[in-house]
Amino acid sequence: MIEFINVTKHYPGRHHVLREVNLHLRKGEMALLTGPSGAGKSTLLKLLLRLEDVSRGTLMVNGVDVSTLGRRHIPAYRRRIGVVFQDHKLLMDRDVFNNVALTLQVGGLTGRQIQSRVRAALEKVGLGDRAQDLPAVLSGGEQQRVGIARAIVHTPEILLADEPTGNLDNSLSTEILDLFRDFHHHGTTVLVATHDQSQVNRLGLPVFHLEQGRLHTPEEDKA
Ligand code: ADP
Ligand code: ADP
């Protein structure tokens, strides 16, 4: 489903940020992406979203060669992916419902369809009764749940998260990562960048570890 084949990335005027990365994640699998700050985790996720271009190598996602995907195909490709950020990027002047509905408003759905999908997404993250609230009255963990509802409301095949628990305490981090695992159990392919070692140990999921742009795969670690 996700396949990085000898992927190298450099930003203009900089040394390689990712070097010859090989990463394979099968459909429905969940894995964690770890490594110190600056190791290249966000860059790897940005390549998957085609927010950045691959410099060398091939990136395949469910049969699509993302490394050579033409500009006009990128928006449709991105709609197959849901993404959650550390700072959740909620619009503070819109209520929870409208923050989540945002992702659907380009899709040509009727108001009634949007209504029922947003309700279902909010139920899944345990916020079924908070649709009318503004983000400011929610706790940090609840705000992050809104971010997750927004990421999954269009039922993406792939769910990516960049340090989704970076601002949360340990018990909230556990709740949020368990929520990601629920989506994985329902068939979504999930890749989460995190530096939270206690969660890495607890979850017992495959770990891809980046150090200075080089990836150490779960297979290598076992060998
Ligand atoms: P991580 O997410 O693991 O902290 P990043 O992917 O954000 O790592 O960054 C990896 C390296 O690439 C860092 O040295 C960072 O400064 C550099 N970098 C990230 N984005 C850019 C950019 N747009 N232009 C130039 N350098 C960048
Ligand atoms: P930074 O590391 O500089 O904070 P981010 O990776 O958080 O940058 O996000 C870069 C920009 O790309 C943001 O404005 C974000 O909203 C946008 N973005 C991220 N994912 C998608 C997506 N799937 N489709 C469209 N835009 C996206």
UniProtKB/TrEMBL annotation:
Q: Which keywords are on file for this protein?
A: ATP-binding, Cell cycle, Cell division, Cell membrane, Membrane, Nucleotide-binding
GO biological process terms held by the UniProt record: cell division
User: Per its UniProt record, what InterPro entries does this chain match?
Assistant: AAA+_ATPase, ABC_transporter-like_ATP-bd, ABC_transporter-like_CS, ABC_transpr_LolD-like, Cell_div_FtsE, P-loop_NTPase
Per the database record, which ranges form the ABC transporter domain?
A: 2-223
Could you confirm whether the keyword Cell division appears in this record?
A: yes
Q: What PROSITE patterns does UniProt report for this protein, alphabetically?
A: ABC_TRANSPORTER_1, ABC_TRANSPORTER_2
CC annotations in GO? plasma membrane
GO molecular-function term, one example from the UniProt record: ATP hydrolysis activity
Instruction: List all membrane-crossing ranges.
Output: none
The record's subcellular locations are: Cell inner membrane; Cell membrane
User: How is the protein disposed in the membrane?
Assistant: Peripheral membrane protein
What function does the entry list?
Part of the ABC transporter FtsEX involved in cellular division. Important for assembly or stability of the septal ring.
- Which family does the entry's similarity section mention? Belongs to the ABC transporter superfamily.
Assembly behavior: Homodimer. Forms a membrane-associated complex with FtsX.
- Full protein name: Cell division ATP-binding protein FtsE
Per the UniProt entry, what species is this protein from, by scientific name?
Acidithiobacillus ferrooxidans (Thiobacillus ferrooxidans)
